[in-house]
Amino acid sequence: MHILVAGGAGYIGSHVVVDLLENGHQVTVFDDLSTGCEENLQESAHFVKGDIFEKGPLERLMTATQFDAVIHMAALKAAGDSMKEPEQYTRHNIEGSYRLLELAVRHNVKYFVFSSTATVYGDPQYLPMDEKHPLEPASFYGFTKLQVERQMAWYSQLRGLRFASLRYFNAAGYDAKGRVPGMERGTQNLIPVVMEFASGRRARLEVFGEDYETRDGTCIRDYIHVSDLARAHTKALAYLNEKNLDLLVNLGTETGYTVKEVLAAAEKVIGKALDVQITDRRPGDPPTLLADSGLARQLLNWAPEESDLHHMLTTTWELYRPR
Length: 323
Fold this sequence. Notes:
By secondary structure, the chain is of the alpha/beta class. The protein has ten helices and 13 strands. The chain has two domains: 199 residues, Rossmann fold (3-Layer(aba) Sandwich); 92 residues, UDP-galactose 4-epimerase, domain 1 (Alpha-Beta Complex).
């Protein structure tokens, strides 16, 4: 298939591009490089620089090229920031997605794969969370993703655009073969924050609360290697093509690590102790988030193969460590 990856120079997007190319697909990356890295672009992928909101570049690209599928990964993703800047998140995540959906329909694209999030569920009412869990986002970011999921469902019904919505849990790690050399920009996720601090790129390492009802008082999260996420996108495209059915699945490992467990494992990988500052809890941080990924395993014949904690940490440290 010929696939347009919007946001394909970003952290997760660049790993998706690597996996698509490995599986024989033709790939065009569309990215404005505001958060993506030019060094992550693969030589065998065509690259077009542009903004989704500019009428010219994307319109010309989709007019000139018949794409079979669009993978949409061009969005803002910081839940905390979304609560402070809802207008910005409305524009980028909702309006930008609607524009891409509109163009996909107008140019007869068959399949649309969407980078969604487990934050659409909000605070867990039971664990692990499966796809039937109530949808009550606790952040504006989660709300924006849920709005796009609902729009895609209508476009499937009214316009025949088949979609896959992939609800990520906590992405971590880097390509083990070093094919994605550009560091993620502006990250707020624990593992890259730890690596930034350990490599001298960040002045302070904070843990937000240690009085949760967990085994060591810190939050538990489900971390999944980014290359496992990438493989799920390729498998989702195959599912859409073979089954002609919409798809909505969680992508996680069903295993959780506490913040302190991640820090202890990171110290072993890095080879030194980390000076951690314990601060107050962040509003909206539930004690535990765990995925039920049984549906992805069943429908996609997918499993997280690279998501052990040591591998996620070592592949990240290999990129961040001082040379």
